[in-house]
Amino acid sequence: MIERVAIAFDRKDYHTAAKLLQQLSKESPDDPWVQFYIARLYEVSHKQQDAEKIYRQLLRSTTNSKIVSQARQGLQRLKEVEQEQRQRAIAKATAEPNSNESGILVLEPLTNQEKSTVAAQFAQIMQLDTYTARLILPSRSWRVYRYGRVGELKFYGEQLQKAGIPCFWSTISAVQQIQIYQVEYFSESATQATVVCRNQTHQLGSLTFNWSEVQARVAGLLPIFEEVVDVNARHKLERKTQTQDYAQFCDLHLPGRRCILRLSDQSYDFQQGVEIAALASQNTIRINWNKVINWLEQHLPQVKLWSDFTPFAETILDQTEMLRNITPNINLMRREPTHWDAAFQLYSGLVFNKCLAIADSQN
């Protein structure tokens, strides 16, 4: 009867083949040829996952060289079909308006147990082996996984979300469009607060807002590099660039105004405006900055603090093409630019847009 099944497949008479296989699966369910043709029937019925499962089982369980060869060919056909479907879907996704803008796909952290559960699905979607997939999935902080056309990233992101893998995507322009105001000091503070600040063209002005408008705080440390003279292994003097200190930054997000208020211990004028604490002349910048942060926390006790900037930045510092497209809006006296500044702008901007999207979806 198996020969009749083969003939039916040659004639593309899948109705007859299905009827014959229904009988054979009852009489000889473990026969590898029966299993092979069931997989073929699944394949022509566009049930790729069922077909792949049986083909892989046959590769593990049978020693018949002909069946092994046919199963491998079946898997290759399935791979080609999947690739073709993927390319069609990507082409459709990138045909939408603004889909060719530059964007990023961000993976969100998972527990080790969650990574074990979804690693195989992540591998299948992104065409990786499971071991590599598990290494890529983050456990500490957000990870920028891909940079490219946002339409394509959206396609992959939607597949990942359906598989239970938390992620999101954003255009670079969405981050760039957020207004950044560099805060010099708070001039008033009650139900409403007023800051004296500079805009992105360094014009001085003021902005008054309600504390309730602040929906997120972002904290980050940016390294300050200095050129030093050191003795190398050959006992010769050489110049090196080393991290000598860190500048502390705190962003206050006002999504309703589409702006971020950016404070830094390097530029905040502790002697002006609201007397946040007794700012003694002998106080260090660190002491005064900590007082400002404590004061902000008292006014914003329910506002979420995002403080995973450093592990996030460490995963993207080598993605120079992407970071070069981001205006840092970081006012530090540097000898030369560093991608750390653009990384902070990206991190804070992603937090801003993600929180804004969540708020919009709830309204």
Task: Give an account of the 3D structure.
This protein has 363 residues and is of the alpha+beta class. It has 13 helices and ten strands. It has helices at residues 2-10, 14-27, 32-44, 48-61, 65-93, 112-126, 130-136, 150-162, 172-176, 285-299, 309-314, 320-324, 339-362, and strands at 102-107, 143-149, 167-171, 179-189, 192-198, 204-210, 216-231, 237-254, 259-264, 305-306. The strands form two sheets. A seven-stranded mixed β-sheet has the order 6-5-4-9-8-7-10, covered by helices on one side. α2 runs antiparallel to α3 (32-44), α4 packs antiparallel against α5 and α6 (112-126) packs across α7 (130-136). 29% of the residues are buried. The mean pLDDT is 88.
Topology:
Blueprint: H1 2-10, H2 14-27, H3 32-44, H4 48-61, H5 65-93, E1 102-107, H6 112-126, H7 130-136, E2 143-149, H8 150-162, E3 167-171, H9 172-176, E4 179-189, E5 192-198, E6 204-210, E7 216-231, E8 237-254, E9 259-264, H10 285-299, E10 305-306, H11 309-314, H12 320-324, H13 339-362
Helix pairs in contact: 1-2, 2-3, 3-4, 3-5, 4-5, 5-8, 6-7
Strand content: 15-25%
Q: Quick one: how many beta strands? A: 10
| Main sheet: strands, sense, barrel | 7 strands, mixed
The gross shape turns out to be elongated
Average pLDDT: 88
What is the gyration radius calculated from CA atoms? Answer: 29 Å
* Order of SSEs: HHHHHEHHEHEHEEEEEEHEHHH
The residue ranges in which pLDDT falls below 50 over 5 or more consecutive positions are none
Number of helices: 13
**Oligomeric state, counting identical vs distinct chains:** single chain
Instruction: Output the strand order for the largest sheet.
Output: 6-5-4-9-8-7-10
Distance between the termini: 63 Å
Structural class: alpha+beta
Helix content: 40-55%
